[in-house]
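Task card 7
Instruction: Convert sequence to structure tokens.
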Amino acid sequence: MKKFVILTLAMLLVLSITSSLAEGALVVYSPHDADPLQAGLALFQEAYPDIKVEYIAAGTGELLQRVAAESENPLADVLWGGGADSLAAFKPYFQPYVCANDDVIGEEFKDAEDLWIGESPLPMVLFYNKTLVPEEDAPKAWEDLLNPKWKGQIAYASPAKSGSAYTQLCTMILAQGGPDGGGWDFVEKFYQNLDGKVQDSSGNCHKLVAAGEYAIGVTIEKSAVLYADNPDVAFVYPAQNSAVPDGVAIIKGCPNLENAKLFVDFVTGLECQKDQNTNWKRRPVRSDLEPVGLAPLSEIDLVKYDFDWAANEKETIIDKWQEIVVNN
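Output:
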């Protein structure tokens, strides 16, 4: 016990010294929703008050394109958020880093080359408005999205702009037999049932359903659970789901490398992970934290997600999606 106390005090002293010495700037790109984003940045500022933090919020696709365009002269230090399969498609623009919390993050939530680190696994959900959807018609599976009754009443974001929508697209393809076994046929029928209505941002999907403008939304767990006190909406985890994590990555050649490392350590650290789960219902990636208010991943039917295919074939997959959009 004494050794543990001494070690803990020593670690606190090291953290205190590190915090007092850390200074300069940090620029964060993030697709996270405004509230959890602001909360995480505020906690980081409390821990490192002498670091000036700036951020730019936009969709995952837009931010990744921005990282690529700025690669000769990076303007940001870290990308916080976005599906790891989307980040993996842009690995040449990231810098390897083994974070301080590496030992409590499962290998399935980390890049093999340490170019990104998972910070919150994200199951997908079907979110619906109970005033527009009778309980007997509530969606329970991906196939229910093809019901003609919901034509033009499904909120779904463009996978070319939204990282979570891209993961949803890949999940549906894999759940319906894969890219060579019927998956794309399902996607074409799904798009036809959208009736040409595709959102620019994944953040719109749950908001539009909650507002009663759409009956059903394809969205992510962290967005749906924020409506726990709203009796007009509900959600289900469809079978053959995925739990690809949101990731965090240091941008290659970034101007504030040491501060970027501190930030990655912080958002995967105990304090930030607890706060993001407790206050914003984001699922912690750490194996030493049980999610509060969320179903265990072991209770969710997960498809075998082909990470390499989703990452390496992203351009082809998006082109195929765009072809379906143009032809329908």
